[in-house]
Amino acid sequence: MSKVFAHRGSSIKYPENTMLAFKKAEKTGCYGIELDLHMSRDGYQIVIHDETVNRTTNGRGYIKDLTLRELKKFSIKRKWYRNEKIPTLDDVLEWAMTTNLIINIELKNDKIYYEGQEEAVVQKVAEYGLGDRVIYSTFNHKSVKKLKQLTDSEVAALYSKKGTNPLLLVKSTGADAIHANHRVMTESLMKDCQQHGIPVRLYTLNKPPLIKKWIDAGLAGVITDDPELAENILKEKQ
Q1: Largest CB tally within 10 Å, which of 38, 50, 79, 117?
Q2: CA 11 from centroid of its chain's CA atoms
Q3: Which residue ranges does the record assign to the GP-PDE domain (predicted)?
Q4: How far apart are CA 141 and CA 177, in angstroms?
């Protein structure tokens, strides 16, 4: 049965990658949440999608150039949610301990490589005792290999390029799972992965026909901005 992951939280209604979006996602009954991680100048794991704060906050600058103290001064600039702040991984994991959610942590280290991020994130997850409830993912396939050396948690290889063979990607990286853009996946490729015991999760499935199509095809994970919609479709299927 397919599992629903809230992409950056319940981000269709609430500001992405915020504690509000994650808490609202949990209320939908979804299986897990997905979040993105960059690293601040002083080594903190910052939950935000872009390399800069420019798009989602009232601040300016690259995460790598800003300290946690500076980042916490910024506010989310989506509609009326201006009291929301950028969370840290600590903020999310501390809250996650009060839930049963699976946490998909995407390391955003493909455009800017953060030296030592893999070790820091794995250590942080271990501090909270959540290793059995975490899935790591990244577009940086060297980082996939590194994570596989550091943790027993599931590690997924992300990709979005057409022509990529997911099974070959698994073989070359040692990944446990595939997370792919739905536009580059076919049912045949997914079945090949499943026959080799490799779960496939697709992003970002937001429209009912797409969600229904992939649930019917036996997709392992629906990664969506609208977990409430996906959960309702899943219940109808059951």
Answers
A1: 38
A2: 12
A3: 2-234
A4: 12
Fill in the DSSP letter of residue 111: S
Residue 236 phi/psi, 5° resolution?
-65, -40
* Among 37, 181, 173, residue whose Cα is nearest residue 112: 37
Peptide bond preceding 57 in cis form (omega within 30 of 0): no
* Cα atoms in the Cβ-side hemisphere of radius 13 Å centred on 118: 21
Give pTM, 2 decimals. 0.98
Per residue, the 3-state secondary structure of 18-31, as one string, reads CHHHHHHHHHCCCC
**How far apart are alpha carbons 8 and 35 in whole angstroms?**
5
Q: Using omega within 30 degrees of 0 as the cis cutoff, is the peptide bond preceding 204 cis?
A: yes
Which domains, ranges and CATH numbers included, belong to the chain? 3-237 (3.20.20.190)
* From 7, 38, 179, 182, active-site residue: 7
Report the C-alpha gap between 147 and 40 in whole angstroms: 20
Two structure tokens written together for 95: 């809250």
pLDDT value at residue 179: 99
Largest Cα–Cα distance of the chain, in whole Å?
Answer: 49
Question: For 1-41, how does the pLDDT look when each residue is reduced to its tens digit (9 = 90+)?
Answer: 999 999 999 999 999 999 999 999 999 999 999 999 999 99
141 is catalytic: no
The percent of residues in the chain predicted with pLDDT above 70, rounded, is 100
Helix axes 166-173, 187-195, angle to 10 degrees: 40
